[in-house]
Design goal:
heterodimer; A: 277 residues; mainly alpha; B: 305 residues; 76% helix
Amino acid sequence: MKRGFRNIATWLGAAIVGIAAFCALFAPFLVPHDPFAQDLGKRLLVPFWMAGADPQHLLGTDQLGRDYLSRLIWGCRISMLIGVTVSIVSGLIGITIGVLGGFLGGRVDDAVLFAITTRLSIPVVLVALAVVGLLGSSMTLLVITLGLLLWDRFAVVARSTTMQVRNLDFVAAAWCAGCSRFRILTREVLPNIASHLVVVATLEIALAILLEAALSFLGLGVPPPLPSWGLMIAEAKDYMFFSPWVIMVPGVALFVLVLGINLLGDGLRDLFGARQP
Amino acid sequence: MLRFLVRRLVVALLVAATVMTLAFILTRLSGDLATSIAGPNATAADIEAIRKAYGLDRPLLTQFLDWVGRAVTGDLGESYFFKARVSTLIGERMPVTLTLGLTGLVIALLVSLPLGILGAVRENTAFDRGVQLVALLGQAMPSFWLGLILMIVFGLELGWLPISGTDSWDCYIMPGVVLAFSAIPALTRLTRAGMIQAMGSDYIRTARAKGLSRASILLKHALRNAAIPVVAIAAVQLGFMLGGSIVIEQVFALHGVGFLAWESIGKNDFPVVQAVVLVLAVIYVALTMLADLMNAVLDPRLRSA
């Protein structure tokens, strides 16, 4: 029963992530309209489930008459792009220092622990806002900033799993066989902690997507007119009391995507966890 | 115990010093501060005057040491925009942020402790899975969006709660709930896991064998042990909440420290930005130290560590 529930949740998560990845990759071919084209004659058209909807615009239009479904699909591309690239940047930083700390121990490990403690004490949203506010908003800057801020969980997990693997027999065997330190790290340690890191990566993608949305919502994330979901919610905020669906559509999309990634991550954790001795 | 304390204190001071350096570097990232402060319409003479007035013509190292020297004595400098002392500004706004953070923490504990305990008692039942599902949903909820939804439902449709401001206590309910959402998943999972572990241990078997009541076993014996990591994480979560409240203060127009920082970023008011980063980091460091201390007091086994 429990397994059945878990499996359904994992498949649901995989399906959501799959659809989002498909939308992200093929957004230019999927959008029914140009997501940037304004049509002031068709402002704030209602979505299909409400009376008086325009069949041309399934999810209606925004305050500038831009097709909401097209912007939603394009926004999915932005969210996924930021989520994946941020976790690549933060993964490279976090895994490197985590593995080094866990493998070398001693002074190096002390320094790594100190770096993690310092990083945790820095208020992420505030610092990211400040950097974007001072240097101007762009996707690249946002990815680099979030990447530099979100490596802590990668480092913590890489460090503790490396410590467990370090003392196992096959690593000792590799030492005896005369393998170099670098070879042991890349060929023996990394493949054996990879499953844990994949789980962390899913969590980080979800976190980065939520943070990007929050920063864009505050006006210091993805620059307009790009249709980031957070930015769509911010632009719709002024109309939300009269037409609540304008914040519902991008908000639900954001919620479902993050939920899907987390469900998939939990499923992967169970899958990999079951294989561990 | 004393060695443990001293060690923690030294690490905390080092972290604070590192954050100070980072906060200073952060505000100098944009290059020429004087040009940004002066704005797009300033003449070269204006920029030069500003550079002199704020001491920005001195070498960076001198500026840094000057800032550190003053900050250590509690002097965080002067705001360019508000024309007031930064420490005064932060002092005025801090009560709002602290009230918000504590409200959020209390709501989070009120929800996650019972949920976690009941989830553990009924492990692997439909209720337990329901609790885990709630934790999962909470984790995926974008806080600012939840805030807007609550405003529409409880502020506009039902008219029960004010949608912005800080005039009365009920202004803090909606922002507090939104902030609590970020901590509920972690706290619930930790309570549940701790209770399951505690319920399986020998002293609970002994307590059962003595014929103690179920409530007494649960609340007096198991919860006391399960609460140790929860208390520690609650303190740390409060630190995260204070740092993360910037988004929620913005949504609900609460004029706290986060709101101040957001305003200052928009106005290139660097002394305020670097001071808020520093203050929030120091509060976080103090809270984690407090968490470690509480751990040591609650669990005598940790004292020798």
